[in-house]
Structures are given as structure tokens and as C-alpha cells.
Amino acid sequence: MARRTLMQKFARWHIWLGWLIGVPLLLWTMSGLFMVSKPIDEVRGKHLRIEQPAGTMTVAFGPEGTAYTLREGRLIQQRGRAILLATLPDGSTARYNLANPGTGPLPPVDEAEARAVVAAGIVGGKQVVSARLFSADQSPADFRHKMAAWQVALADGTHVYVGRDNGQIEAVRTRWWRVFDFMWGLHIMDLQTREDTHHPILIFFAALALTGCLIGTALLFRRRRRPISRRSLP
Of 15, 113, 140, 194, which has fewest CB within 10 angstroms of its CB? Predict the structure, then answer.
């Protein structure tokens, strides 16, 4: 009898909890289904952009007046040096030291410079466990950028990625970031790229969840008959 009373309480609590969480669950699933029904690039209007032809320009700088042909350039400061970060006509990246431009582009970032970049730009960046260079076509799972970069692993499990050609910190991946990234892959049901929020499996299960929430919300309005007591029977 006590067990039956406890189960009845559980059932009553379940109904009241259903009223409390039914509305947000319905909103979550309905909004989620809407968001996955369209590709994100289409939502952002990427398909409306008209591609412009890439032009080049010839720039001369420095006391020697050395001329360079660039597609675009950006002035930055790296560890006390004025650097021209340039995109060349073939799409590659090069760095020029404005204090001595006549020497040509700076060499690609080596391990020592990658460690120095991390030590100067990241809290705890001096506690390096390892440093490894990845090519553009072998990007690690927690980086996923088509560019050559140094992976500098720190003692706390953080991975810092430094661009080989630009000497910039491109990404910081903590242990929590990697767990979050895995959970995001589970959430959108894409464990391979963890970027595709528009695919048939996700849309199907989102629609299924919305249907379940709608049915569950409708059942909250049903009227239950009170059980007939044995004492009321003749």
C-alpha cells in the first residue's frame, strides 16, 4: 500500500514537472528543428555574395625602396617588430620586417619562435610539454583549419596553435574546449567534422523530438478519472 502511495506521488510530481518543463522543451525542439532545416551558409547569405576577382598591387617600402607585389597586406607588431603581413598573388602568406625590408620575407616560424610566441601570449605559456608542426592538409581534430601551424602543448593540457607563415596565435584549445567540442558533435550528430548542422539524420530526430513534445504537451490536458473505491461498491 505504501509503495502504491509513493508511486502515486511520483505520478503526480511527474505531471506537475511536465507543466513546468513542457513549454521550454517545446520551444527548444521547435527552434532547433527550424535552425537545422536550413544550411548555415544560406542563413548567413553566403550564396548571395558575388565573388570579386583578386587584384594585386605593387608596394615599395623601406629605405631601399624595394618593390613587392601583394594581393593585400596588414601591419602588425610581433614581439617589438613592425611586420607587414602580406598575402601574395598565389594566396600564400609572407612576413616582411619593415625595419629591414630589403632582406626579403622572413623565414617560416620554427619551433623556437613558436615557443616564444606562446610564452609571450598565453598564461602559463612557458610550461611547454611538446611542439609539433602540422601541415595544412594534416590539421589536428581540435584545430581544423587549412593552414600549416605549430601545435604547442602545455602542461595543463592546453594546445596552442601558431601559424607557421604568419607567426600569429590562431587558436587556443583547452581540455574543456575539447570536451565541449565532442559534446557539440554529439548534439548536432556530426562527430566527423562537428560543423554540419544541416543533415537528414539530425533533421529527422529533431522532427521526431518535436512530435514527441507536442504529444506529451497535449497529454497534459487529458482528464483522469478518479479510481473507484472498493468501499463504494455494493
Answer: 15
Distance between CA 97 and CA 114 in Å, rounded? Answer: 17
Q: Indicate the CATH number for domain 57-103.
A: 2.10.70
**Alpha carbon distance 66, 148 (integer Å):** 28
Q: 188 with 197: CB under 8 angstroms?
A: yes
Question: Mind spelling out the 3-state secondary structure of the chain?
Answer: CHHHHHHHHHHHHHHHHHHHHHHHHHHHHHHHHHHHCCCHHHHCCHHHCCCCCCCCEEEEECCCCEEEEECEEEEEEECCEEEEEEECCCCCEEEEECCCHHHCCCCCCCHHHHHHHHHHHCCCCCCEEEEEEECHHHCCCCCCCCCCEEEEEECCCCEEEEECCCCCEEEEECHHHHHHHHHHHHHCCCCCCCCCCCCHHHHHHHHHHHHHHHHHHHHCCCCCCCCCCHHHCC
* Rounded mean pLDDT for each run of 10 residues along the chain, 234 residues in total: 70 75 82 87 83 79 72 88 89 87 87 96 95 95 94 96 96 94 90 86 89 81 61 52
Rg of the chain in Å (alpha carbons)? 29
pTM of the predicted model, to two decimals?
0.78
Considering only CA atoms, which of 180, 160, 179, 178 is closest in space to residue 170?
160
Q: Which amino acid is present at 30?
A: M
